[in-house]
TrEMBL record:
Residues involved in Zn(2+) binding: 254, 258, 284
Cofactor(s) required, per the database record: Zn(2+)
Cofactor-binding details, from the entry: Binds 1 zinc ion per subunit.
Organism field: Paenirhodobacter ferrireducens
GO molecular function, one term: metallocarboxypeptidase activity
Annotated Pfam families: Peptidase_M32
Keyword Zinc (UniProt): yes
Name of the protein in its database record: Metal-dependent carboxypeptidase
Role summary: Broad specificity carboxypetidase that releases amino acids sequentially from the C-terminus, including neutral, aromatic, polar and basic residues.
Keywords in alphabetical order: Carboxypeptidase, Hydrolase, Metal-binding, Metalloprotease, Protease, Zinc
Length: 489
């Protein structure tokens, strides 16, 4: 075999092992017995040790030096393989293994601390996770520590570029929020019990409406909803609050967006560096466009209103129009995953600032809860009542995902660009949505973006799909038009 062929064969085995590791994570968050946490931490650490050894195998350097690219696919393969090798060889095996072991344990500790409203139980392990992540950043950094971690999730982005984008977005978001909250109109709210079994049945119907392939996936319950897998095995999770069916339904639609991206990637890219979504920002654009621009549109909520009536009977909302306003109700809530479209990015901007302070060493973990609560009251105008509604609500820091949060807001920006282009390409989309099918949108996204996987860098991926460089303008224009119409501004 040529050097390129040898590298491809080696990479396929590494990617397959990484898929097994990801499946262990799915199992831990869905069906693993609680008593197995320590054993799973050792299993995860052992597998990470094997993966790290493969990712830093000296033969990779030799293959990269000798391989010659003859196609764009091969050139991108070598570029991504080289990037991975460079990053992994900078991180000692000891550190990679310990991070895998500790974050596996930390996840369970976080879940129990959140359930028991007991921050003191979580703070010690978060200190350890943060220390290891800062050590990892020091191994990787060629400049700013936070940028080194951010690069894992959004290659090419920096805290300065994202911070500048957030600074441009914040004034229009805050101004629109103030106009909405000052409007006379008040959407109705749900006020009854929605049984879990009925919610889950309707969640499956919603996932099917977007084209989720049940032969390659499944839906389970988790403390924090997520999507897991790639290729032909992509699984989604949701959670159920019986007083709030939107929590379950829109978490499911959100995760279906992630899943459809992975399921739509060209099968020829399987077990290669291009066989995954190119970045978390692009990934979040798929989940957010499913959840918001499509899933909360008047056409889709009109269909969903009928399905809600069938599932729950008279639930207090009298018309499809009132239901649409209810789904899109703006309120300064505490939970990011339940936040309306106006407040969501403000949640992310807060987390972005806090985690940069943590990584820089300017904020101690012991002071994190107080800093969170003060910043939340400043940004949202309400006091945080419990830790589970405050700094314990997200799993990300528990599992070491520092640098991940800003990709959610970047995903919203990308989604705004994609939605503008998609609507121009599919002028009759609302007719399909009103009939309960978002498949035309999913198919357009599959052809324009999904199938290419990681073939292009993130910004180029969005630009190729939209025909223009991504910018926050389309998202902000969409929000002003949508909420202006709902609230009569």
């Amino acid at each position: 075999m040529t050097a390129f062929q040898e590298l491809v064969a080696f990479q396929r085995e590494t990617e397959a092992l990484a898929s097994i590791a990801e499946r262990l994570g799915w199992d831990q968050e869905t069906v693993m017995p609680r008593g197995a946490a320590e054993q799973r931490a050792e299993e995860t650490a052992a597998l990470e040790s094997v993966l790290h050894a493969r990712r830093t195998d000296p033969r990779i350097e030799d293959w990269l030096a000798r391989a010659e690219a003859e196609t764009p696919f091969e050139a991108r393969f070598l570029d991504l393989a080289g990037r991975s090798y460079n990053r992994n060889t900078r991180v000692p095996a000891r550190l990679a293994t310990e991070l895998a072991r500790l974050t596996s344990l930390s996840q369970g500790i976080w879940a129990e601390a959140r359930a028991e409203e007991n921050p003191a139980a979580f703070v010690p392990v978060l200190k350890q996770v943060l220390a290891l992540k800062r050590e990892e950043a020091e191994c990787l950094a060629e400049g700013d520590l936070y940028d080194a971690l951010l690069d894992d999730y959004e290659p090419g982005a920096t805290h300065r570029s994202l911070g500048a984008m957030f600074d441009r977005m914040r004034p229009r978001l805050v101004a629109l929020r103030e106009r909405v909250l000052g409007a006379e109109f008040r959407p109705p709210v749900l006020d009854q019990v929605f049984p879990e079994a009925a919610q889950l049945r309707l969640a499956r119907i919603c996932a099917s409406a977007f084209g989720y392939d049940w032969s390659c996936g499944r839906l389970d319950i988790a403390v924090h909803p997520f999507s897991s897998g790639s290729g032909r095995d992509v699984r989604i999770t949701t959670r159920v609050v019986e007083s709030d069916p939107f929590n379950c339904l829109y978490s499911t639609i959100h995760e279906t967006g992630h899943a459809c991206y992975e399921l739509g990637i060209d099968e020829e890219y399987a077990f290669t560096p291009m066989g995954h979504g190119v970045s978390m920002g692009v990934h979040e654009s798929q989940s957010r466009i499913f959840e918001n621009q499509i899933g909360r549109s008047a056409a889709f909520t009109g269909w969903l209103y009928q399905r809600m009536t069938e599932a729950f009977g008279d639930f207090g909302i009298r018309t499809p129009e009132a239901f649409h306003a209810c789904v899109n109700r703006v309120t300064p809530g505490f939970i990011r995953t339940e936040a309306d479209e106006l407040h969501y990015n403000l949640h992310i901007m807060m987390r972005f600032d806090l985690e940069r302070e943590l990584i820089a060493g300017r904020l101690a973990v012991d002071d994190l809860e107080e800093a969170w609560n003060a910043r939340f009251e400043q940004d949202f105008g309400v006091a945080v009542p419990t830790p589970s509604q405050g700094f314990l609500q997200d799993v990300h820091w528990a599992v070491g995902l520092f640098g991940y949060f800003p990709t959610y807001a970047l995903g919203n920006v990308y989604a705004g660009c994609l939605h503008q282009t998609l609507r121009a390409a599919l002028p009759d989309l609302d007719a399909s949505l009103a009939g309960g099918s978002a498949r035309p949108a999913t198919e357009w996204l599959r052809e324009s973006l999904h199938r290419h996987g990681g073939l292009r860098p993130p910004v180029e991926t969005i630009e190729a799909a939209c025909g223009f460089a991504p910018t926050e303008g389309p998202l902000l224009d969409y929000l002003e038009a949508k909420f202006g119409a709902i609230y009569g501004l």
